Amino acid sequence: DQQVKQNSPSLSVQEGRISILNCDYTNSMFDYFLWYKKYPAEGPTFLISISSIKDKNEDGRFTVFLNKSAKHLSLHIVPSQPGDSAVYFCAAKNYGGSQGNLIFGKGTKLSVKP
Amino acid sequence: ETGVTQSPTHLIKTRGQQVTLRCSSQSGHNTVSWYQQALGQGPQFIFQYYREEENGRGNFPPRFSGLQFPNYSSELNVNALELDDSALYLCASSLGGGKGDIQYFGAGTRLSVL
């Protein structure tokens, strides 16, 4: 019973183009969403987050969009760079429930080709 | 400011043995969460410690136990190791509480159970 789903295991884009990573969730109690990036042999690195009261949050080249009615969020990277090649995890949290419990998707491996 | 550090980086044990993994939290952080990441999966929440008390637990059996010390460092202990315990174990620290609380991860300990 996966509450956070990343249905694309991998994504390949050309340098300079837009990367769009998608994430769906099933639990309507989630009220905070995060994206982490993970390089091999390193821990996940926090990238960007969004509260359920917003529909967009932007930080430099990274923008996260939240569509609560569709229970869907996406991460846009513009322009994509080869250094963005990593595994991206979507995570969700219910602050009204178990405090520490980040629920992760399985991740999407992004490859940015020069 | 030092980040989250975990030790050891790699560990090989045999079935039935016991293991202790260690985590030093980021400076100023009073909350530590532990996650298990199996191959091809996203991190799965084991438990969280806040000011030396357990503050939430995921769906893991009692042979997974933990401690947090007055300096907020933490240990994860696993007894009676099983083959399925082979995974990357991640520790994350945070300031604790609040909707915007971000968890920062260490590089993990890779445990192999033979």
> What order do the SSEs of chain A take from the amino end to the carboxyl end, as H and E?
EEEEEEEEEEE
The Cα radius of gyration of chain B reads: 13 Å
- Name the shape of chain B in a single word: globular
Please estimate the helix content of chain B. under 10%
Helix content of chain A: under 10%
From the spread of the alpha carbons, the general shape of chain A counts as globular
For the termini of chain B, the CA-CA separation is: 37 Å
Q: How far is it from the N-terminal to the C-terminal residue of chain A, by CA?
A: 38 Å
Low-pLDDT parts of chain B are none
Radius of gyration of chain A, whole Å: 14 Å
Structural class of the secondary elements of chain A? mainly beta
Mean pLDDT of chain B: 92
Walk me through this protein's architecture.
The complex is a heterodimer of chains A (114) and B (114). Chain A has 114 residues and is an all-beta fold. Chain A is 0% helix and 53% strand. Chain A is built from no helices and eleven strands. In chain A, the strands form two sheets. In chain A, strands 2, 4, 5, 9, 10 and 11 form a six-stranded mixed β-sheet that branches. In chain A, strands 1-3-8-7-6 form a five-stranded antiparallel β-sheet, with no helix packed on it. The model of chain A has no long low-confidence stretch (mean pLDDT 93). Chain B is an all-beta fold. Chain B is 0% helix and 50% strand. In chain B, strands 2, 4, 5, 6, 9, 10 and 11 form a seven-stranded mixed β-sheet that branches. In chain B, strands 1-3-8-7 form a four-stranded antiparallel β-sheet, with no helix packed on it. The relative contact order of chain B is 0.33. The model of chain B has no long low-confidence stretch (mean pLDDT 92). The A-B interface holds A 4, 6, 31-32, 34, 36, 41-46, 49, 51, 89, 91, 95, 98-107 and B 4, 31, 33, 35, 40-45, 47-48, 50, 55-58, 90, 92, 97, 99-100, 102-108.
